[in-house]
Design brief:
Elements: H1 2-12, H2 19-29, H3 52-84, H4 87-115
Helix pairs in contact: 2-3
Length: about 120
């Protein structure tokens, strides 16, 4: 049983050259193909060093690209996990994730109250 799952995951494994994020980025951003890049690609200017109002906008645009790519990788990973699990396991897994998020949020709210 385990070997079938391992074989399936091995077949679906993505290369280490950022192929997973580049495909998702192109899908979400309409053609942006990579996460890294120079400061000009991130919206910063070479002359200004990426500081000031223009640089802040560039950094925010770059951050948005990275966040979209990360969301896409998370979604793709979740889909792969759900493909491997049985329907009952999928329900239990998703319910567990939901409970974990709720409990983490409650813990975070309590922690903020005690810090302030």
């Amino acid at each position: 049983m385990e070997t079938k799952v391992e074989e399936r995951l091995e077949e679906e494994k993505v290369g280490g050259n950022g192929e997973a994020t580049s495909g998702c980025s192109r899908q979400e951003d309409g053609g942006v193909g990579k996460v890294g890049g120079s400061s000009e690609e991130w919206g910063g200017s070479e002359a200004g060093g990426g500081t000031g109002a223009g640089g802040t906008k560039g950094v925010m645009a770059g951050l948005e690209k990275v966040m979209k790519a990360a969301d896409c990788v998370r979604l793709r990973t979740l889909k792969r996990v759900l493909d491997v699990l049985s329907p009952l396991q999928c329900v239990e897994f998703l319910a567990g994730i939901g409970m974990l998020q709720i409990l983490l949020r409650q813990w975070g709210k309590k922690r903020v109250c005690t810090i302030n």
